[in-house]
# Entry
Amino acid sequence: MTQVEIIVNQRKNLLIYAARNGVSKACKAFGVSRTTFYKLKKQFEKTGDVTPIQKRKPKMPNETKLSKKKLLLKLVQQYPAWGPQRYSSAFKEHGIHLSPVCIWERLKNFGLNLRFQRLVYVEALKIEGKPLTETVVRYIRKQSQKVSKGLYPGHIIGLDTFYVGNLKGVGRIYQMTGIDLCSRFGWAKLYTEKGQNQSLNFVEDTLIPMFFNNGVNIESVLSDNGSEFIGGKFQGMLDAYRIEHNRIPKGKPIYNGCCERFQRTINEEFYQKAFRTKFFSSLENLQDDLNKYLAFYNFDRLHFGVMKEGAKPADVLKSKSKVLQRRFNEIVNLTC
# Structure
């Protein structure tokens, strides 16, 4: 899915949300002005589409021309074992002066700056439906391990329900939890009941606007087989937003381990301390403190589950994209 397709899906979700819940609530939830909303609505009613208008790209003085990129990829296909210095010399034979440093940068943008990557690329071009060799399989597996489970932000959102406890004067409290398996960016909301009305409210009023405001489109959700996730009303809402629903096998919570671990972290780092240091008289007060912790978790706390050296989930959410797919699409477009 390209960036334009993601934007189109987000805008369609905004229109769907407005049709289901009203314009004012949709604008508030998705963080857009009424003017922007009505522009999108007018565009959709007129053309049946909400594709963003393509603006002319500014001309960058140091940008490598398309013809030079195509020539570089042609040289890579012919001489994958060469280095930037030899490619630079080959460019000079064509009357083009391009420094080895500039060539290395272009190769890096394509994901071809290493000799092994260029060899795998040449091999992949000649496959055309034939089985991959073990070398290519190992390389692809190594690249996919960098992302782990969720291939890109919004690809898979883990959902689960967590019983918090019994709050005096309020009653039983349940926590609906959602976490992006790629970036580990997550959020949670408290309810006094557990059912598909609560799960529907959590996904539609919390997760979709939350990820929308961070430029991410939710493509699929992963949940257990609890009654709050298998009802027709909840499934109808997912169908309206074109969100795929995957269920884990019964009695196998490890299949949704990221969400389980996220809830354990919230319990250990927030609830166990909060209930010993503060008295909560209402669900709203507890939710306010939970929101503060979640803001810390997503924007300030280092997470070591994605990167060995640690990274903040919000930074990963914004920076990590479909690198391999984008590079592949760019290479394919240039070689066509």
